Automatic annotation (TrEMBL):
Lineage, broadest ranks: Bacteria, Pseudomonadati, Pseudomonadota, Gammaproteobacteria, Pseudomonadales
Hydrolase in keyword set: yes
Enzyme class, UniProt record, top EC level: hydrolase
One MF annotation (Gene Ontology) recorded for this entry: hydrolase activity
UniProt keyword terms in alphabetical order: Hydrolase, Signal
PANTHER family: GH08193P-RELATED, PTHR24260
Domain of life per record: Bacteria
Bilayer-crossing regions: none
EC number(s) recorded for this UniProt protein: 3.4.21.-
Signal peptide: 1-23
Species assigned in the record: Pseudomonas maumuensis
UniProt-recorded name of the protein: Trypsin-like serine protease
Residues in Peptidase S1 domain copies: 234-453
Length: 453
């Protein structure tokens, strides 16, 4: 028996960990917050004071009212404070802003005629910050939902999204916007909270204080709810009431992806339907039926997921290339249909390609006519053949027919001798929807075997 060298074993382990870390995909977007505060003070007889910076600012200024013959009146005085603080996570920002100012006018007398003179003091404070969303240039064009909620002690604050004022003079703001992100692009949200005071003469004083809070949350938009990326329906498909174990994955109230029942509480779908949506799992549900508007079919809550993410197992989903685009969702309750049978490799893919065997592609979605959703939530099916075999996926290009990415996670069925077997999962395609890609289920038999519930 040979005893392995300990140092060699440790080196191999370190290299494996290093490879796994290096293989980790970069995030699709990052969030940057840049505070910018400034205050400006003016009082009689002294130079103005102006401060600007990213940290909290605070200053005061005393005027120089000097009477010519004897002391009289008071000196002008002003002060201001501005501060912007933020808390940032990988998908949200909480921004708190405060600004305050105080002004007190002054007075003095000259000897000539013993005349009295009023003086003024003025202060302005501005607390602001720019929140920038930077989108990774290596990721494809994608839609995101940006939720923005803002509250202010008055209606003085501004909220500009790429130059458009979302506050419009309101002290309470709530918006949920769909944002289309081009690769390498950025979006800016500018928040500003100004305060100004002014007072003149020996009487009175003026003070003002403002505070505001802005919460921003960004999340990927449901795939089937996106109009900018794709035509979210099977091109050339027709409505079907068959394939009972094919259902729709919902994100909130929106269509998201398609999936197939693989076990009592297991749904087979594409990894890109899950990757980037992990923190939205509580909003995810599964619904069977041929029409999502049919009340006879209830939503079943999704409670967990799994996807290839460890290169040590030989499988690791890449959200950029869509390599190993396969995932499982787990439901809270049993699903009331017969689970799908999976292709084990017989007949093999070379035979299917050479003989141009038609596969049946199934998915939910809608047509888009004059920018309106038509037939939303209808299960559709279409048939064509694949023409190329890759590592763990197959590709096809059939004129007039394509999944066009819209039915992500849906099945490709092989129907032979009255038997239906799922052979692939809808993964992606080119931007022109002329070529589509499917993940082969037979290539993941070992990975799937121990994960079905």
């Amino acid at each position: 028996m040979t005893v392995p060298n300990l140092a060699s074993s440790m080196l191999v382990a370190l290299l494996a960990v290093s490879a796994s870390v290096q293989a980790a995909a970069p995030p699709p977007f990052t969030i940057e917050v840049l505070p910018d505060n400034d205050i400006s003070l003016q009082a009689f007889g002294v130079l103005p004071k102006v401060l600007q910076g990213a940290t909290e600012l605070s200053a005061n200024l005393l005027g120089d009212e000097s009477s010519g013959c004897f002391e009289y009146g008071r000196k002008s005085y002003t002060s201001a404070q501005a501060n912007a603080q933020s808390s940032v996570t990988d998908s949200s920002v909480t921004l708190s802003l405060t600004s305050s100012s105080f002004s007190r006018g002054g007075s003095y007398r000259t000897c000539l005629g013993v005349l009295g003179h009023d003086t003024s003091a003025q202060a302005s404070a501005r607390s602001s910050a720019t929140i920038t969303l930077h989108f990774n240039p290596d990721y494809p064009k994608a839609d995101y939902i940006v939720d923005i909620a803002g509250t202010s002690s008055n209606n003085a604050f501004k909220l500009l999204l790429d130059g458009t004022d979302l506050a419009q003079g309101k002290a309470l703001v709530s918006h949920s916007l769909t944002l289309t992100a081009e690769p390498g692009s950025s979006t800016q949200l500018f928040v500003e909270l100004p305060t100004t005071t002014r007072n003149e003469g020996e009487c009175c004083e003026q003070r003002a204080g403002n505070s505001a809070r802005v919460d921003v949350r960004i999340r990927k938009a449901p795939i089937l709810a996106s109009k900018s990326l794709l035509k979210p329906y099977i091109v050339g498909g027709k409505q079907t009431h068959a394939y009972k174990n094919v259902g729709a994955i919902m994100l909130g109230e929106s269509l998201h992806c398609t999936g197939t029942v693989l076990g009592k509480r297991t749904i087979l779908t594409a990894a890109h339907c899950i990757s980037g949506y992990e923190k939205q799992l509580t909003d995810m549900a599964f619904k069977l039926g041929s029409n999502l508007h049919d009340p006879a079919f209830a939503r079943v809550k999704v409670i967990d997921f799994d996807l290839p993410r460890d290169s040590a197992t030989g499988y690791s989903f890449n959200p950029i290339t869509l390599e190993d685009d396969i995932a499982l969702l787990y439901t809270q309750e049993d699903l009331s249909v017969t689970p799908v049978r999976l292709h084990s490799g017989n007949p093999n893919w070379e035979q299917l390609v050479d003989q141009r065997v038609s596969l049946t592609f199934v998915g939910f979605g809608f047509d888009v006519v004059d920018n309106d959703k038509v037939g939303e939530g209808i299960k559709r099916a279409a048939s064509w053949w694949v023409d190329d075999i890759e590592n763990r996926r197959v590709a096809f290009s059939v004129k007039g027919k394509n999944t066009c990415k819209g039915d992500s996670g849906g099945p490709a069925f092989l129907i032979e001798n009255s038997s239906i077997v799922q052979v692939a999962i809808t993964s992606g395609g080119d931007d022109a929807c002329k070529r589509g890609y499917e993940t082969r289920v037979d290539a993941f038999q070992g990975w799937l075997a121990s994960r079905v519930r």
